[in-house]
Fold this sequence. Notes:
Blueprint: H1 6-31, E1 36-39, E2 42-49, E3 53-61, E4 67-73, H2 85-92, E5 106-114, E6 132-134, E7 137-140, E8 151-154, E9 159-161, E10 164-166, E11 173-176, E12 179-184, E13 187-188, E14 197-200, E15 215-221, E16 243-252, E17 263-268, H3 270-279, E18 285-289, E19 293-295, E20 311-315, E21 318-323, E22 326-327, H4 334-337, E23 342-347, E24 351-357, H5 370-380, E25 385-388, E26 397-399, E27 402-403, E28 410-416, E29 421-423, E30 432-434, E31 439-445, E32 452-460, E33 473-476, E34 480-483, E35 492-496, E36 501-504, E37 514-516, E38 519-526, E39 529-534, E40 538-540
Parallel strand pairs: 13-14
Antiparallel strand pairs: 1-2, 2-3, 3-24, 4-32, 5-26, 5-32, 6-7, 6-20, 8-9, 8-20, 10-19, 11-12, 11-18, 14-17, 15-16, 15-17, 16-18, 21-22, 21-25, 23-24, 23-25, 26-27, 28-31, 29-30, 33-36, 33-40, 34-35, 36-38, 37-38, 38-39
Amino acid sequence: MKPHSPTLLLFSAVVVSAALLLVQIAISFSASDGWESVAPGIAYQQFQLPDPNNVYVARMDRSDPDVIIESSIAQGRLSGGTETVSSMFERYEQTINYWGQSWGGRNDVVVAINGYFYGGDFEPPGVPWRGQIHSGWYAKRFDDNQNGSGFVWKLDRTAFIGECVQHQADEQLLSFTGITETLKIHGLNVPRGDDQLILYTPQYDASTLTDASGVEVLVEMTRPALVLPIPSTPPDPLASFGAIGYVRDIRDGQGNTPIPFDHVVLSASGIMRTKLLDYAQIGGEIGISQAINHLSDDDCATPVAGDWTKAYASVGGSFYFLKDGVIQDFSGDPQATTRAPRTAIAFNDQYIFFIVVDGRDPGISEGMTIPELAGFALNTLGADYGIAQDGGGSSTMVINGQVVNKPSDRLAAYCVYLPLVVNQGAGPGAAAVPQTDQESPCQIPVERPVANGMMMVRVEPITQSLALTPTQIVTTSLTATLRLGPGNNYAALATLPPGSVGQIQPHTNGLNGVLATGSYWWRADFGGLTGWIAEQELGTGK
């Protein structure tokens, strides 16, 4: 019995099936002779293995200075939200980044894969496990004393795979102008507890989501709050803090402070509220130090190579399966020895590899065990290091906006097969068989929403408009949206009716009229409310 009315469902199924088949055919044929360039510095190949498995690999050339690794965040917020990989791909396309240690370059997203596990027994719904670094911001702490952290890409183009980590309390600090005492940061982008000082960054949510029981200090940053520890016994504490900001507002007894894209909020309660009120002054300089101690997975005590300082992008991972060219032993773990869809990141001195393996498709692609995945990364790709991400129904690869693999989640439907010519075999010499107009049951692959991901990105240079100038009076020419940052990816701060009068504000970090998500953006004040507005929504004069 058909579960739905056929007309709409059949048409939708046809469109989805046809689009997926065409993408698969085009990429399969073009990749049959080896690597296919999908963007300068980034190549792709689909491997059809006899075990049987379909494996999809994107390869980034580390010597190309214009290609980088970036992480993605579902719905742009780590407070809890999920989104498909293809939707996150679109979310970050043409958004500004911090590559080159300055804001304003744009992300030309080329490849995206899913990230790590989320929710369940370890985190609230939609919150990723372990930690995350996004565009230089340390956005979610990696778990202390938990073996494994994740793949790490740094501002100096180096990469490593994190093992056990720790956050020493005396290395997570705030420093203030003219004050020798420092304050400890008790948490990062987590709900605030009693007598705590929590650091909130723009990746947490549009606001701090706090109640009115504490004080919140809004700080405009000159650079992201990176993993950037201070040296031991510095001569001048504040001068040694690399992440510097300036106090723009002190909100006592209000809570739920909005977080602009280049700001942080220091939120304190109880004893820490009193200290923060004593130390913070409007216009005063604040330094932020955060450090990660990198330790061996074996005992979470022995220091190992891999300095997290100035890490640019990272998400959690598990099954560090390939270490310095040696396949690791996971024979006692049934999750590692079961064939399943897999996502992984691997690398050597020349390339970064994103790997997705289809699975749960008997006779076509049955998935890999972790030892099989390690063997493929080592022997076929020539990788030296590799770590798995979330797998199963989450395993997804998107290239230039198109899902190229077949995720194992399926939507049951009835499909009408149009007379398309499709490749039915496993190689370039396979027969091409036309399909008929026959209606029959089928299952359409669908993307599973996930909490975060990783991307291969080409960086486009900063571009700015000269149409307006700071202090200039402007009016909204239509209903306009004032946002927390320059781009449609940032949350709306307010909706302004046509004719609203505002004034362009100079931006501390020089992003006046910056191009992002297809528009030029200006920081402007409308009746005491300051945010970012698209140039095409503005006119000049009263």
